[in-house]
Each structure stands twice: as structure tokens, then as C-alpha cells.
Amino acid sequence: MPRLVDHAERRSSIIETTWQVIADRGIENASMRDIARECGYAAPGVLAHYFPNKTALLLASYELICQRTNERIAASTAGKRGLTALRSLCMEIIPAEDLTTVEAKVAVSFWQRAQSDEALRQVGRGALSHWHAEIMGCLAEAQADTPTGRPADPDLFADELLNTMMGLHITAMLDPYAMSGSRQRRLIETILRRLCDPDAS
């Protein structure tokens, strides 16, 4: 009996291979032929069964990065609340581990392409909006737990924290030795202390 093909699994495998090709060669140099070869296919036509063209593959790749990030956030914050949950959320977004470093390299490539691709831009906006709402929820819980657990302007704080994390995607890619994983984690901890505790130095 021929082996049944799990199309969802194969689709995810193609996307994950696309991530690695983009991380290694850049988004413009990631051709369908190269991706097919890395997937173990002799010709790119096999990819067309799942993605009609490179644009569709790139869009699905960006969507899955955001989805996987949200899944990790949900898992890491389960049973937590307030600043404890917020700290865990941040650690899943910043590129401080091997997996998130690859994702960050790919995400930065997508940001460049999103300047002229509205569909990619919508995915990015959706992710930022979702994370902003998650941060605001954590801050509301922190305020309920302790009067000093929330900054005077939560929305501004959420913007600062979110933009800092997005900036780390770029600086960690440009100079991974200077902006190492431990350095990134220390920076986030410092921001949380400074902005959420008025007495922190």
C-alpha cells in the first residue's frame, strides 16, 4: 500500500525549509528551484501543488512564523499573569535563541519586501497589533496585582517595549556578538524594571 501523504505536514516542511534558505541566502536569492532542491525535490514543480508561486510561499512562510511565535507565547505564559507573563512573552519574541534567531533573519527579510507587498504588510501589522494587546493585558493584570505594577502610560510603554524588541531583530542580525542572547535578555529585564517600577534605577 502506498504511503499516505500528510499534505499539512509537507506544507509546513516546505515552509520551514524556505525559512532556512532565506536565512542563509536572503529573500531575493531564495528561488523556488533552490527551495525545491533543499526540500529534496528534483524540480520546483512539486512546490506548485502547495504554493502557486513564490509570492504565495513567502506569504505563507511569514504567516507561519507569526503563528509559531504566538503558540510559543501561549505555552510560555500559561498559568502566569502580570509582569511574570510579560517577561515570558518578551523572551519568545526577541531573537535570543537559535530558533528565534533564524525566525528574526527571515522576518527582517519580509519587512523589507513588505514595503511593496500589502499582504505581507498586513501580516506584520496583525502580529504587532496582537502582541501590543497581549502586553496591555499583562500590564492590566500587573496593576490589579500591585499599584506600582503598571506605568503611568501603559500604551506608550507597550509601544516602547514592542519597538525595542523589533529593533533587537535588526541589531542582533547585524552584530550577533555585541547583541547576544544574554545581552538581549538583560536589556528586556532592565526595561521592565525601569518602566514598571518607579524606584528602579
Write the layout of secondary structure elements.
Layout: H1 7-25, H2 32-39, H3 54-77, H4 82-93, H5 98-114, H6 118-145, H7 154-174, H8 181-196
Helix pairs in contact: 1-2, 1-3, 1-5, 3-4, 3-6, 4-6, 4-8, 5-6, 5-7, 6-7, 7-8
Could you write a compact summary of the structure shown?
The chain has 201 residues and is mostly helical.
Q: Cα-atom Rg, whole angstroms?
A: 19 Å
How would the global form be characterised? Answer: elongated
Number of helices: 8
Largest sheet: none
Strand content: under 5%
Low-pLDDT regions: none
The SS-based structural class is mainly alpha
**Kindly, what is the distance between the CA atoms of the first and last residues, rounded to a whole number of angstroms?**
68 Å
Mean pLDDT: 89
Question: Level of helix content?
Answer: over 70%
Order of helices and strands: HHHHHHHH
Number of strands: 0
